[in-house]
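Sequence and fold
=================
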Amino acid sequence: MSFHIVFPAFSIGLASYLAVLEALWLWTGREVFINLFHYWLKIFAIAFGMGVVSGIVMSYQFGTNWSAFADKTGPVIGPLMAYEVLTAFFLEAGFLGVMLFGLDRVGPRLHFLATLMVAIGTLISAFWILSANSWMQTPTGYAINADGQFVVADWLKVIFNPSFPYRLVHMVLAAYLTTSLVVGAVGAYHLLRDPHLPGPRVMFSMAMWMAALVAPIQILAGDQHGLNTLEHQPAKVMAMEGHYQSHKDGAPLILFGLPDQATGRVDYAIQIPKLSSLILKHSLDAPLAGLDTVPRENWPPVPITFWSFRIMIALGFLIFGLGLFSLWTRWRGTLFDSRPLHIFALTMGPAGFIAVLAGWITTETGRQPFTVYGLLRTADAASPLAAPAVGSSLLAFVIVYFIVFAAGAIYILRLMAASPHHGEQGPSGDMPSRAAGITPASGAAGQGALS
């Protein structure tokens, strides 16, 4: 999951960025936009392909490692996954070839339509995947048949379950911020070498606008998502906050500490009195329940949930700080000359990926010990496999994934190390005009070759 999620997070944002670049090119006619489009299109193709390949393996795991889960929830989860394939994946696959190789063959307007369809397809894909995962977090619209399977009673309630809108907005904004940080880091890298390059200047300016405008929206969306989680998954919030004990007259915000699952306390806690109640209940003296109100067998693993949540929050505020810094330099007219800003943006390049990983770890570990929250325990959802069988296959995947990940990442970094230039070509730059068969030669040479 950790290997896979970074690629959809990148491709969702990058597909929309490519659509914006091509739209700006069609609107303004400026060459810099089409050069940037071709530059990022090559990177998108690699990230998209690696995301698809790693995602297929995850689908197989429903039948291999989680056969009991597949049997119990198949009538609900199966159609949602199928809708993702039938709508989003087919849309992306249908237009991806035109997007990658068709600019000189179908014309700019039809090519822009293909780019737009791929971008929309990535968002539709996020819609269905987040709907399925959100139903596992906040299940509604279901019934349980005689065989103990979850079946659909109301499709609208299944799809638009209580946590889905919050999680969809939070994830899509995270994908956009992740992409903007990568684009900004690449632009900063080249500006540090030459602040007068037109391509890096444009991409860096666009990335900093995205960070400055979307980061505060993401913080607000995250706050609303947290309030929704408090309503529907209170034990997850207790783990995130490190609240082992209930607080009747205002709960402190624990900034840092060492959660001890065995003793049920946070050691060496650095905390601000009553601030957690203010954030979650909007009142300093509002009572907040702790894990002491939850049966111990239903406790999430607090240490990992506690720390992954803090990593996500810290990176979120760093991104917000980067956006504010960029606004200040833009106002002063030094956006392209501020070496501290460029170094800051360069170091923040991987921050979006780390924040996405931390957010998903918070979400998935905080749901434990359930796969369908409150209804199906993880222990009852796993396949009846011996530990050595699972361990050997996991080890094989880890080895293969690290090789594939390293190869893909190194190639992407090599592409990023070169600056976008005049006459930048996309993936179709050096390809023949025909994809299959014999390309007829012209004149006598052609006749001789055919004879």
Summary: Residues 2-417 form one domain. Residues 138 and 169 are 16 Å apart (CA to CA).
